[in-house]
Each structure stands twice: as C-alpha cells, then as structure tokens.
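User: Sequence in, structure out. Go.
Assistant: Echoing your sequence, followed by the structure tokens.
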Amino acid sequence: MRKVNIGALLRIALGVVVVLVASVAAIVWATVPSAPDGHVRVPAKTPFTSGPYFAYSQPWGGEMTALTKLWAPRADHIVVNLKKFPSDTQFYWRWPPFGPTNGPGVWAYSAVMHGNYDGGEPDVAVPPKRVRDVREFRQTFAWTIANGNGDGNVLSEVYLRSSDTDPDAKVLEIGWFLHMPQSSRTWFENARPVGVFVDPNGMRWAVRIEDKFCMFGPERAQDIRTGTLDMLAALAWLRANKTITGDEWLWGISLGVEPVKGVGHLTVDRWSVARQ
C-alpha cells in the first residue's frame, strides 16, 4: 500500500487556499469603482450632502449575517457627480451570488434622499410636515441598472412618523418598487393585499402590506425606468381606505437599490423631488 504523503497534501491544500485568497483579493480590487474627474467616490456608511439632497449606503442586511459582517462596510460604494447631484449618482454593490437568509432578504440599501429620510440631515433642512397639510409631493426619475451578474430591488421609500422630532417614531414605511427580482416579486405577492391604486397617469399599482411596510408594485410585473410618481395621490388613496389617518408626519424620501445578490450597479440618471 502506498503511503500517503501528508506533508505534500498539506502543501497542495495551502496552495489552493493561497490561490483562492489571491483570486478573491483580485476580484475585490478589480471591482472597486473609479471616480473620474468631477466625481467623488463615497464608501458605505459615509454621508454625502448637497442642498436638500443626501446620499448614503447602509449595509444593514450584511451586518446582520456572520458570513458577511466584516465585508459589509466594503461591499457598497457611491460615485457622485459633483455638478449634477442628485442626478447621475451611481451605486455599486459587491455581495455573494445569493441572497441573505436573514429576515430582511437584502444586503443593504444605497440611495439618494431628499430631506431627512431616515435620520440623515441634508445641508438644507426640509422640515417634516403632516400628511394632511401636504399640497404637492412628487418625484421625477430615470434610472438604469447593470444586473447581469447580480440583482437588487430599485425602490423609492418614505417613512410616516408619529412625531416631527423623533426619527425612530415610525408608524408606517411606504415603498414603490420600480424593479423587483423574481424572489422579491414572490415575497411581494405573498403579502396581504390592500387594493389596486390607479395613479394620475393611469398606471395600476398593486398595494400590499407586510407588517409595517406598505408596498406599491406594478400590478403587471414590469420595470418603471422613467417617469413621475405622484406620492400625494397615493397618500390620499391610503387615507381614503383608512390605511393612514393623515395625522402622520412626512419626513424625507429616497430612491435607490437594495442589493439582493451578486455584483452590479444602479445609476440614478435623473432625480428631483417637489414637496409643498
């Protein structure tokens, strides 16, 4: 019987480990986004503000998973066009080629924001306003996504709160899904239905609730890559069906990506918010 050369096997195993580590390091290095002239690269958990707008990347899903906790602060980057912000803002993500198994089902949320969306203060304050006192609330947007090697939810969100001073006094989260991977669509369709909202442009949105998250998704699965969202009309519809009262405080709003898996990037080509 031939003797097993333990030393040789260990050297082979060590060589394989070294090659794997070097390969991962090379991939990590190669996928760090560049910031051309007139742009700045912003790492995760680092705010960028200009006027009433704000950009931030929060890897909260990755931080909840032991496998990715150390990687989480390095996985997402924002590239800001200093002259056009919040337009032409790019969000890059680099996560495992599968979704997290923890509660959120997403690795992070990276977004441009108007006003104090979730605790972040822009340079120019946008004071909270009661829903019943809002006279205009709309956003105009256009976006493109590179999702051949990964995917994520393209999502615009607001929080309604019971206070105009406490960012943690959240009553309801409201989100508009502009792009959903199939896994997200399946989760969405299993949530409790509220009804169908037809917006002023004739677009039909299926509205569903999961816990304290009220979701607007296209009734027919599709991407909404450009257009205008009239959030005031949506809030009026929610008041009419008693989902909200109108006494809640409206703070800020966001538009961004929740990475679900893999590597990719979202470009917010155009974004502006009007609120009165």
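User: And one key feature?
Assistant: Helices lie at 6-30, 60-63, 72-75, 182-189, 231-240.
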